[in-house]
Structures are given as C-alpha cells and as structure tokens.
Write a structure and sequence with these properties.
CATH architecture of the largest domain: Sandwich
Order of helices and strands: HEEEEEEEEEEEEEEEEE
Largest sheet: 4 strands, mixed
Distance between the termini: 143 Å
Number of domains: 2
CATH class of the largest domain: Mainly Beta
Radius of gyration: 32 Å
Helix content: under 10%
Number of helices: 1
Shape: elongated
Strand order of the largest sheet: 2-9-8-5
Strand content: 35-45%
Structural class: mainly beta
Oligomer: single chain
CATH superfamily of the largest domain: Immunoglobulins
Length: about 230
Amino acid sequence: MPLSTKPIRRLSPLLIWIALLSKPMLAAGVIEIESVDLPRAIQGVVYSADIRTSVDGLCPSGNVGLFLAAGSLPRGLRITEAGLAGVPMEMGIFRFWIGARNMCASTSRAFELLVTGRPILRAIPDRIEFTVSPDSQPVGQTVLISSTWPGLAYALSTPDSSWITMRQAEGTTPEAGSAFIGDRATVTAIPLKLAPGVHHTTVIVSAWRADPITIEVTVTVTMPKPAATQ
C-alpha cells in the first residue's frame, strides 16, 4: 500500500517553526542608527557628516549600507557609505529619512539638516579707547560678541599679548532665544608695560567658517606727573 503524502495535521506547527528558523528574521533593534543631530551645512561649502550605525549579536556586524528612505536631500549632497557628503547648492531646512540595512535587517531614522550661509560675527563696540597713567592698574572694557549663528564658538587673539589681555564669559555666541545680545568679552590694557604716548593694536575675533573681524584698541598713556619739590 503506497505511503500517503498528506501532511500529518498534528506536526504542522513543528514544520512551520522549522521553516521559520531557516529564513532570516527582521528583528527589531538588530540594526540601530545612532546619529541623531546633523551639523549645519553652508551653501557652496564642502560638507560631510558621519551617520553611525550599530548591530547586535543577532546579525553579522558588517555590510551595513545607508540609503535615502524618504524625503529629499539638498541639491549637491549625496549619501555615502559613511553618511552624507557633497557641496549643498541650496539653502533651507531639509527633512528626510535615512535607512540602514544589511543581509538580515533594515531600519530608518528621521533627520533634519539646516543649510545656511556663512556665519557673520559682530562686536559691539568694534572700537575701544583707554586713557591711563603709567602707574595705574590694568583697565578693562567689555565687548559683546554675537553672530548670525547661535551657539557659535569663537576665539580672541592679538599681536600685542604682552600688554593686552582678553577674557571670554562663555566663549560662544548666545543660543537662540537667549536674553543676551552677545557674549561678554573683556579686553584689558596693562599700562605698566607701556611708555607714555598713544598705542594702537587690534583684537581679532575668529570662528569656524566665519570671516574674522577686528576690534580696534587705542591706549593713551599720559606723561607721569612731575615729582613734588620741597
């Protein structure tokens, strides 16, 4: 009597389980896109941003590829093996989804990229003057440093560091929505290191991708008072 090829009903769950185990499973969390915030980009300037991914033990650790899952990138940018690269040719706020996948899983995450112009630095005032006597104590004045980019780190420098000192309050321009119009930078002249007369120098304010600006400093050191006669 020939054997029946009809599946045995009570073995069906076992056969299904074996079939499932023989196929790759798209498990949640197998691939994770770790990067969340993209650094802002400047129109017409070379841009690159890494997008980090990780995998867990359920999936091989290599061969993760990135792709544009939804939305559109700024014209001039492309997705690479490491993240984003190119020269953005248009300004604006761009929202899109980037996906990551390999042989056993796929995931995606939403991103937002701001493409803007170069940051512009400002100093108020951009010219300061001191009138001091040769034996007076160091005298300082405050300058407010701001930028078209909120939270921009900046640096101060001067060619005459022997008689000018500089101190920054935060070292970054105010964040968006801040009540402050600028970060407080103090420029101090040291009269004891100067001869009587008029002295000129500059304080240079610089920041990433910004054209540096200068603060003109003039220090007038008066003639010493004549000694009193007996």
